[in-house]
Write a structure and sequence with these properties.
Elements (H helix, E strand, L loop, with lengths): L3 E2 L3 E8 L5 E12 L5 E10 L1 H37 L4 H23 L8 H11 L9 E4 L2 E4 L1 H20 L9 E11 L2 E11 L3 H4 L3 H4 L1 H14 L2 E6 L3 E9 L3 E4 L3
Parallel strand pairs: 5-7
Antiparallel strand pairs: 1-3, 2-3, 3-4, 6-11, 7-8, 8-10, 9-10
Helix pairs in contact: 1-2, 2-3, 2-4, 3-4, 4-7
């Protein structure tokens, strides 16, 4: 008796097991029909697709996160371009400052790409920016001191740009532009009325106040980033004070923005 084969049976479904676990199964099969069109036999296979479904869901989450980060990154670049253009008078200066800020952003992205295996500490962030400017962080006129602190990955970008502005300013106009200048960066955990906070103090001594008054951080993008962006994006409390021969900046972060861990 001749037999006819029609379309394949393909179906994915969930299966609840007696122990409460849920598995995803994929059924593939073919029916065989007699001359009257009645099915009389089926062959097929059942495949457990649970792990594939899990990987697909993970991939969807990762793609969505990548798209979100890309949109945020584009927004940051656009903001940097607008702020830099608004604080410069000629194209040559714009190119220099904009290029420096994009380079800082690129360094942050490099750190973030390795954050799962190599968490980003506050000290690494500061040293990365100073090293990029050719500042010897182990020299006698630079000191960094504080516990091992981890920042939330979503906050690293904004915080790093603030450190970049402070470091660039110190290198071109502040303490690191003077032979006798000194830079001290300290951070510590403090108890406040609302819980633990992290207080960072950036202190430059031996500053030429006339030179510092010409810096873009004094009244431009860097100052706005410290006094506006950090409070808005990270809930920080900040100060920036230019004294006769000193520059003092403080950044106070709430407890949900950092974690103090034991030294490795």
């Amino acid at each position: 008796m001749p037999h006819k084969m029609r379309a394949e049976y393909v179906h994915e479904f969930r299966s609840l097991h007696p122990d409460g676990t849920v598995r995803w199964l994929s059924a593939h099969g073919r029916f065989f029909y007699d001359n009257d069109g009645a099915p009389f036999r089926m062959v097929g296979a059942m495949i457990d697709m649970t792990e594939r479904r899990r990987l697909e869901e993970t991939q969807k989450v990762m793609v969505a996160e990548l798209q979100h980060r890309t949109r945020n990154l584009i927004g940051v670049v656009r903001s940097i371009a607008q702020q830099t253009a608004g604080s410069t008078r000629d194209m040559a200066t714009f190119r220099e400052r904009f290029g420096d800020r994009l380079a800082a952003l690129s360094r942050v992205q490099g750190l973030l790409s390795r954050a799962e295996e190599d968490p980003i500490t506050l000290e690494v962030l500061i040293r990365t920016e100073l090293d990029a400017l050719g500042v010897a962080t182990y020299s006698g006129n630079v000191s960094l001191s504080g516990p091992r602190v981890l920042l939330r990955n979503r906050d690293v970008q904004t915080f790093a740009l603030a450190i970049h502005e402070l470091a660039t300013n110190a290198r071109k106009y502040g303490a690191l532009a003077e032979a006798e200048g000194r830079l001290s960066v300290t951070w510590r955990k403090e108890e406040g009325a609302a819980g633990e906070r992290l207080r960072l103090e950036w202190l430059e001594e031996g500053v030429n106040s006339a030179r510092e008054a010409m810096s873009p951080t004094t009244g431009g993008y860097g100052r706005k980033l410290i006094e506006r962006a950090l409070p808005h994006a990270m809930g920080a409390e900040t100060t920036y004070v230019l004294e006769s021969d000193k520059v003092r900046c403080t950044i106070d972060l709430p407890q949900d923005r950092f974690a103090v861990v034991d030294a490795p």
